[in-house]
Design goal:
The chain contains twelve helices and no strands. It has 301 residues and is mainly alpha-helical.
Length: 301
């Protein structure tokens, strides 16, 4: 078991926050805000509050996951991923739980401003997002243990986050917000898919029935390829069928080489270091894809 000796406090809490997962929180806010910018609407303070709230919810979810997985015995010493601070004995469980509450509490403060400027709909979105984050591995029936993690990630880091970020700016919803949320949500789900492919053996032993455990490694690899590849097709279809946007949306295709390399890595490797790099790379892919998608939206305006 890793000890806290020799590891700085800041580094330990960064490990708990899992910075590699944070692009999944940033990316949908960028796309939703860029779509509003396409309509010549941009409120900087609302964007900042939405971004800060999204990051805090993601960090709070990671802390809750760290605490809950340790309690359920899912983070054993044989897992291939990075050390978890609770299971690794780096931070007492109570401190991780308190940090979870504090982080979600700060997210609520960011949400209060958004509720004031954009209406009660943001209260529903914020409350549902925090509840989904806490219930991933916490509570009596954590959905992450029932193979539903990817579905919830697609919904909350795709549809809810993109449409919510757009709504914050314009206080209305258009079909384009939901259409553009689909590729964003698929790439967010891909992050969880590769995470669960990496942990498939340790999760199976711990009784954590993720989607990867339920369908097996081969089908999970196929699912990863679909969640990484389909976003490029969807963006092209939005451009061709919407009649609103220009070919600038196809800037996203500049990330195709990275996507191909990641699919090959996940398909050919089972070792922890390779899949950890693929996990980080999938986060980078999502962020790069969404930055280019956002740029394409703004250039289409």
């Amino acid at each position: 078991m890793t000890t806290a000796a020799g590891i700085g406090t800041v580094r330990i809490w960064l490990m708990a926050a899992r910075p590699r997962t944070l692009p999944a929180a940033v990316a949908p806010v960028l796309v939703g805000t860029a779509l509003a910018g396409y309509a010549n609407v941009f409120h900087p303070l609302r964007f900042a509050a939405a971004l800060i709230g999204a990051l805090l919810i993601q960090v709070g979810t990671n802390l809750s996951n760290d605490y809950s997985d340790a309690r359920r015995g899912a983070d054993a010493e044989d897992r291939l991923g990075p050390v978890r601070v609770t299971a690794g004995g780096l931070v007492p469980p109570r401190q991780v739980l308190i940090a979870t509450y504090v982080t979600f509490g700060l997210a609520v403060l960011a949400g209060v401003y958004l509720i004031v400027v954009a209406g009660w709909v943001l209260l529903v979105i914020g409350a549902a997002s925090i509840l989904a984050g806490a219930a991933y591995t916490g509570g009596p029936r954590p959905y992450g243990y029932e193979g539903l993690g990817e579905v919830f990630v697609f919904l909350f880091f795709g549809l809810v986050a993109v449409a919510g970020s757009y709504f914050v700016q314009v206080r209305s919803l258009e079909w384009e917000a939901f259409a553009l949320a689909v590729p964003v949500g698929l790439l967010a789900a891909a992050i969880l898919v590769v995470n669960n492919v990496r942990d498939i053996d340790s999760d199976r032993r711990a009784g954590k029935r993720t989607l990867a455990v339920r369908v097996g490694r081969a089908r999970s690899r196929t699912l990863y390829a679909v969640t990484v590849g389909l976003p490029f097709v969807i963006v092209a279809l939005i451009w061709l069928l919407s009649g609103r946007f220009s070919a600038w949306l196809l800037l996203t295709w500049l990330t195709v080489p990275l996507a191909v390399r990641l699919v090959q890595t996940v398909d050919r490797h089972t070792d922890g270091p390779s899949l950890n790099r693929a996990l980080a790379g999938t986060g980078q892919l999502q962020l790069g894809f969404c930055l280019l998608l956002s740029a394409g939206l703004l250039l289409s305006g």
